[in-house]
Design a protein that fits this description.
single chain, 373 residues, alpha/beta, Rossmann fold, 2 domains, 8-stranded mixed sheet, 7-stranded mixed sheet, 13 helices, 16% strand, globular
Amino acid sequence: MKIGVIKEIKESEYRVAAVPSAVAELVRHGHTVYVEHDAGKGSGYSDEDYENAGAQIKMTAEELWTSSDLIYKVKEVFPEEYKYLRDDMIVMTYIHSNAHKDQTEALMKSRCTSIAYEDISDDRGQWPLLSPMSELAGKGGFLAALHFSQTINGGTGQLLANVCGVATPVVTIIGCGHSGIGACELASGFGNRVNMLDVNYDAMLKAKERFGDNVSFLFSNRTNLLECLKVSDVVINCILWPKTRKDHLIYREDLKLMKKGAMIIDVACDDEGAVETCHSTSHKDPVYYEEGILHYCVDNIPSAFARTASTTLCNATLPFVLAIADKGVKKALKDDKHLRRGLTTYGGKLTLLETAEKHDIPFTSPDDIVKEF
């Protein structure tokens, strides 16, 4: 199979889908790998690194798209790339079709096969291709709070750490998943008083085993959340909010309860999602204020740590890409129900239920699709 590793065009996106070691593995399996010129530059990999791994360098995006059977990406397909989509193509990336109706329609119109990393499941009911980036996003979220709390960056000048003779800052983290754990590792490691909220008691118990006495665990209900908002210097939201919900965990009016100079770090970055006042921002323009509260809602935090992020993402995605390349997409989908869960479009049909429900588009079960193979 001919596999194309694209250079990402999203603003401030420095990750690359395949690192050189992954290219070498694909080539070892007998596949041809094309890498767009400078695709790995932002992650510290040169064209020469990829050539040494067995890749062929394509100088333009058009060359790569038109030459490849499978496009191996990181971020969603952008309008400038729609013209390259075709019916005999496979696209694997973070699609986030719920949030991008025009992209979903373009994928359907092209009749290509598209598979979303974020929707591929495992036997534990987890999302193994999402969790590596979630951990980095959680840790990056705390580091952002550390950065913007500094006086020189417009903050209150409070160091988010346990310093002798000074009141210890309070950090509240919503969600005990991979993002929440990542944020808590750093926040608690710096000695802050940390509150972790979740609705899953087992998840809280599991998380509690990892941390010391400066981390408290509370059931996520309205009363506990409001009490945490009153005392917190930083609130880090680490839960994805269902796209179809119209309510919120934190409402605009709740921000009036928070301390002057407090921050909300929304790792999930759902527009008007768990936090009503949140909307996605970029690394170039990362923060804004609502009701006097700083909001940081960068939607691709891991890109700031591009080399680490590219490696961990590639470690997770490569087995699925290899399965498709080695078996062909039809057999790979038929053999693996978890890969099938990530199928977004096939032959012009929408195969992701959540997107179908949100945008009122007819849904075709991926299980029904594979029965036709």
